[in-house]
Write a structure and sequence with these properties.
With about 260 residues, this protein is of the alpha/beta class. The protein folds into two domains: about 1-205, 2-enoyl-CoA Hydratase, Chain A, domain 1; about 205-255, Orthogonal Bundle (Lyase 2-enoyl-coa Hydratase, Chain  A, domain 2), CATH 1.10.12. Helix content is about 45%, strand content about 15%. The strands form two sheets. It has a seven-stranded mixed sheet, sandwiched between helices. Strands 6-8-9 form a three-stranded mixed sheet. The relative contact order is 0.11. One of its GO terms (molecular function) is lyase activity. Keywords: Lyase. It holds the Pfam family ECH_1.
Length: about 260
């Protein structure tokens, strides 16, 4: 297990598990946790032995958002928050979205504020039955950040997204699945086991399919249909020449399980 101060990191059977580990403060994001999380995400993304990543949290809640007790140098200066978001929070969110590996988020308890953005940045979400997403910003006269407006708009549409933000709503796990914000709800005591099992199912798929479909789905949000089809055609041409395509084709006709290598 890798040694971080605020993050637990391990790899077992092709699954990397990154665990937020500040349970005493509901895993609120201080600078150390922000930077270590980004380092852990980069490590998993670059590890060729890793096929999928589980993002989890210790204690009673996934992430309470920013650590509001933290005082950093220059905090009283105009423009400080802009720099902080652009230099520390946003690169973390983008590191997950742009990773070639699929991320499965295991949400226990509250994913609040920018903690909800961290969860929604993941490709797949499993929630404990006691978990919820909480757009807490409006309660203190702020707006959601960390890409939350885009995540909520894509999943909920503008009216439901605006309602959630305006009313500082908490969305329970079952409602999140109903609205398409999460994939599965499981008993709270089985959350990590079930999320890891889900990650293993995903990891068994062709690595190139996982990588490039994630890329296309991300870029399709800002592309028109013609551009998406052009991107699909370009990548399909690349994949049809891959070793994994040849292996998958042979395995299909030989009625056996393919052994993909990601190349």
């Amino acid at each position: 297990m890798e040694l971080f101060e605020t993050v637990l990191y391990s790899v077992e059977q092709e699954i990397a598990t990154i665990t937020l580990n500040r349970p005493q403060v509901r895993n609120s994001l201080n600078q150390k946790l922000r930077l270590e999380l980004r380092e852990a995400v980069a490590k998993a993304s670059a590890d060729k032995s890793v096929r999928a990543v589980v993002l989890a949290a210790s204690g009673q809640g996934f992430c309470a958002g920013a650590d509001l007790t933290e005082r950093l140098p220059g905090a009283d200066e105009d423009g400080f928050v802009t720099r902080l978001l652009n230099e520390e929070y946003n690169p973390l969110i983008l590191a997950i979205k742009q990773s070639p590996k699929p991320f499965v988020c295991a949400i226990n308890g509250a994913a609040a504020g920018v903690g909800a953005s961290l969860a929604m940045a993941c490709d797949l979400i499993v929630m404990g039955e006691d978990a919820y997403l909480y757009s807490a910003f409006g309660a203190i006269s702020l707006i959601p950040d960390g890409g939350a407006h885009k995540f909520l708009l894509e999943q909920l549409g503008s009216k439901r997204a605006y309602e959630m933000i305006a009313l500082s709503q908490k969305l329970a796990a079952a409602r999140c699945v109903e609205l398409g914000l999460a994939n599965r709800v499981v008993p709270a005591g089985e959350l990590l086991v079930q999320a890891t099992r889900f990650a293993r199912q995903v990891a068994a798929a062709a690595p190139l399919t996982l990588q490039y479909s994630k890329q296309i789905l991300r870029e399709a949000q800002s592309y028109d249909l013609e551009s998406v089809m052009a991107l699909e055609a370009e990548i399909q041409n690349r994949l049809i020449r891959s070793k994994d395509f040849r292996e998958g084709s042979m395995a299909f006709f030989e009625k056996r399980k393919p052994e993909f290598e990601g190349c």
